[in-house]
């Protein structure tokens, strides 16, 4: 992925506990700002960036090196000079130079419980994700991995909040572009 100085448009990472609305929000941003949406979970499946399958959690175990190599190649091959919005439930594995803005979506436990139940998560997987959200693990990870000024926490319980968040990101994007003109 391009370095910050080479980018003509910003790169954004949307992160948060599974079920907070990362993919939906990233899709909205990509459509509104004409950005490339990279659903990292789908990239992992399509490019087989995993080591094995964990039956107890009903998920694949990530091969981080393969994923990072794949993303680096995909984005450089496409000659994308920024303008990428990625969504993934973790942030610490990505190089700091890849992103200009890290958005950590949060949601209430009641909303999250319902969303994870609707997805068919087993009790163990749902409980681990609920605990992760309650303890703010993803937010803390982002704060430890990136400069504090690029990490923003956004509440994402309702469609109205998602629309407000989109307006905030659009304003940030316009400011980022103006500063580089």
Per-chain topology:
Blueprint: E1 12-15, H1 22-33, E2 36-39, H2 40-46, E3 50-54, E4 59-62, H3 64-77, E5 84-87, E6 101-106, H4 109-118, H5 123-135, H6 137-145, E7 151-155, H7 159-179
Parallel strand pairs: 1-5, 1-6, 2-5, 6-7
Antiparallel strand pairs: 3-4
Structure, explained:
The chain is of the alpha/beta class and 181 residues long. The chain has a domain at 12-40 and 83-175: P-loop containing nucleotide triphosphate hydrolases (Rossmann fold), CATH 3.40.50. Helix content is 48%, strand content 18%. The chain is built from 7 helices and 7 strands. Strand 3 and strand 4 form a beta hairpin. The two termini are 21 Å apart. It is an enzyme of class 2 (transferase). This is Adenylate kinase isoenzyme 6 homolog.
What is the N-to-C order of secondary-structure elements (H for helix, E for strand)?
EHEHEEHEEHHHEH
**Remind me, CATH topology of the domain at 12-40 and 83-175?**
Rossmann fold
Rg computed from alpha carbons, rounded to a whole number of angstroms:
16 Å
Strand segment tally: 7
Q: Main sheet: which strands, in order across?
A: 2-5-1-6-7
Q: Given this structure, which CATH class of the domain at 12-40 and 83-175 is correct?
A: Alpha Beta
Spatial shape: globular
The assigned structural class equals alpha/beta
* Residue fraction in strands: 15-25%
pLDDT averaged over residues:
90
Helix content: 40-55%
Major sheet summary line: 5 strands, parallel
Architecture of the domain at 12-40 and 83-175 in CATH?
3-Layer(aba) Sandwich
Cα separation of the termini: 21 Å
Any idea what the CATH superfamily of the domain at 12-40 and 83-175 is called? P-loop containing nucleotide triphosphate hydrolases
Number of helices: 7
Unreliable stretches? none
């Amino acid at each position: 992925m391009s370095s910050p100085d080479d980018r003509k448009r910003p790169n954004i990472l949307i992160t948060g506990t599974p079920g907070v609305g990362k993919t939906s929000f990233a899709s909205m941003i990509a459509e509104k700002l004409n950005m490339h949406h990279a659903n990292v979970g789908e990239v992992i499946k399509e490019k087989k960036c995993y080591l094995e399958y964990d039956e107890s959690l009903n998920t694949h175990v990530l091969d981080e090196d393969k994923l990072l190599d794949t993303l680096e190649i995909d984005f450089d091959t496409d000659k994308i000079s920024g303008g990428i919005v990625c969504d993934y439930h973790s942030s610490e594995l990505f190089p700091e130079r890849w992103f200009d803005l890290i958005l950590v979506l949060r949601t209430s436990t009641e909303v999250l419980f319902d969303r994870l139940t609707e997805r068919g998560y087993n009790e163990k997987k749902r409980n681990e994700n609920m605990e992760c959200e309650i303890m703010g693990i993803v937010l803390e990870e982002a704060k430890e991995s990136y400069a504090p000024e690029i990490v923003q926490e956004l509440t994402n319980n309702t469609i109205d909040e998602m629309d407000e968040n989109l307006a905030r990101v659009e304003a940030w994007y316009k400011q980022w572009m103006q500063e580089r003109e």
